[in-house]
Amino acid sequence: MRKYSKTKKYGKRRTKTRRAGSTKPKKSLKELLEEKRLLKTTPAAPISSQPIPSIPNFKQQLNNYMSSRQPEEYIIQSPTPKVALLFIIIDDLPLENIWRDWLTGPNSRNIEIFIHAKYPERIRSKWIQDRLIRSELRPAWGSIELSKAMYYLLEDALQLKSFTADYFIFLSETCIPLYNIDEFFRRLQGQTKSWIDYNNKPTNGYAYSNQFAPLKEVVPDICVYKSDQWVMLNRINAIQLMDFEKQTNISIWNLMSNIVKASDEMWIPTILCIMNNGLENVVEKRKITYVDWGQETRSPITFEEITPELVQRARENGCLFMRKFKARNPMWLVDDWHKII
């Protein structure tokens, strides 16, 4: 079980009161005025010569680090890559049957699943329980805990010695695969870069004020990037995210905590840009998971059925997964998936 420090609790503030029954005589008005006069004429204590501590200059430190970095090329040793699927769920995986049916045939041995649940104690499925990582986080939308949940999933997947993954893909409980597992691996063949649909310009006022502007205070401007949290990372980039603090002597969470809203959209492309002195040579600007935002700006459309037109649209975007799917009866979606995919 991961251990986290508990917030320090302070006792109630105590105020000084004069003890009841005190026999100390009260001062006269003349005595009080004399004390006030003396206080005005007493010279102030000398100012300390010690310099006032300043906030570390992360920008300059990171600029110096970046100047020494060269992009690293990732080469997959085996003809069929191994893939870790990293799910973030609340307390259930409604489309569990789709994923269990998808994991059939010889290629299923090249897939390993890791799941972070907000409320693991509510889960009844043994299949899900066997794939849970240990965590006490209760991530809310846009919270730093959501970024940390992603970090812990990646960390656990990298530490599994019996399965050396080449790719790490973040998914949600509302995702479905757009191809059968054999076709999925055929489309991964020849790929070496991470897939991140990144951008370096805010699309609205919220992103500017709450994501880009705060991060530009501590990170070189050229490395402030945003993307969906549903990305695919190759092994080198995944290790770089884990090694960031060791390499730079700066905590990711010192950069992100309490200043950046929805850091789950910022931390991966921003940190990878720092680690590789840019993204263009190590990341393919491409979505791994298709979503339809429609006219909304806060949440994508939720679909209650899988249709051939919807699947075709997602495939034309070059994606391998799609979200968000949710139905009153999840088996309807399972039936649709089998018919169409």
Write the layout of secondary structure elements.
Layout: H1 29-41, H2 58-66, E1 83-89, H3 96-102, E2 111-117, H4 126-129, H5 144-159, E3 167-172, E4 176-177, H6 181-188, E5 194-195, H7 205-216, E6 232-234, H8 235-248, H9 252-256, H10 267-276, E7 283-284, E8 289-290, H11 308-316, E9 321-322, H12 330-340
Parallel strand pairs: 1-2, 1-3, 5-7, 8-9
Antiparallel strand pairs: 3-6, 4-9
Helix pairs in contact: 5-8, 8-10
Strand count, sense and barrel status of the largest sheet are:
4 strands, mixed
| Tally of strands | 9
CATH architecture of the domain at 72-290: Alpha-Beta Complex
CATH topology description of the domain at 72-290: Spore Coat Polysaccharide Biosynthesis Protein SpsA, Chain A
What portion of residues is helical? 25-40%
Radius of gyration: 27 Å
**Largest sheet, spatial ordering of strands:** 2-1-3-6
Characteristics of this structure?
three-stranded mixed β-sheet, alpha/beta, 341 residues, 12 helices, Spore Coat Polysaccharide Biosynthesis Protein SpsA, Chain A, four-stranded mixed β-sheet
Describe the structure in your own words.
The structure is a single chain. The chain has 341 residues and is of the alpha/beta class. It has a domain at 72-290: Spore Coat Polysaccharide Biosynthesis Protein SpsA, Chain A (Alpha-Beta Complex), CATH 3.90.550. It is built from twelve helices and nine strands. It has helices at residues 29-41, 58-66, 96-102, 126-129, 144-159, 181-188, 205-216, 235-248, 252-256, 267-276, 308-316, 330-340; strands spanning 83-89, 111-117, 167-172, 176-177, 194-195, 232-234, 283-284, 289-290, 321-322. The strands form three sheets. The protein has a four-stranded mixed β-sheet with strand order 2-1-3-6. A three-stranded mixed β-sheet has the order 4-9-8. Strands 5-7 form a two-stranded parallel ribbon. Helix 5 (144-159) crosses helix 8 and helix 8 (235-248) packs across helix 10 (267-276). The longest helix is centred in the middle third of the chain and has 16 residues, at 144-159. It is globular and about 95 Å long. The chain starts with 28 loop residues before the first helix and ends with a helix. The model is unreliable at 1-24 and 42-55 (pLDDT under 50).
